[in-house]
Amino acid sequence: MAVWDDLVGQERVVEQLTAAARAARATVLAGRGAASSAIEPGGNASLMTHAWLLTGPPGAGQVTAARAFAAALQCTSPDLELGGTPGCGFCDGCHTVMAESHADVKFVRSDGLSIGVGDMRSLVLRASSYPTGGRWSVILIDAAHRLTESAANALLKGVEEPSPRTVWLLCAPSVQDTLPTIRSRCRHLVLRTPSADAVADMLVRRDGVEPGVARIAALAGQGDVERARRLAVDEQARARRLEVLRIPLVVADVGGCLAAAQQLVDTAKTDAEALAETRDAKETGDLKAAYGAAEGLGGKAPRGMAGAVKELEKRQKSRATRTRRESLGVALLDLLGFYRDVLAIQLGAPGSLANEDQRTALGKVAAGGPPEGTLRRIEAVLACRRALDRNVDPLLAVEAMTLALRAG
Ligand SMILES: [Zn+2]
Question: Which residues contact 116 (CB under 8 A, 6 or more apart)?
Answer without folding.
Answer: 148, 150, 151
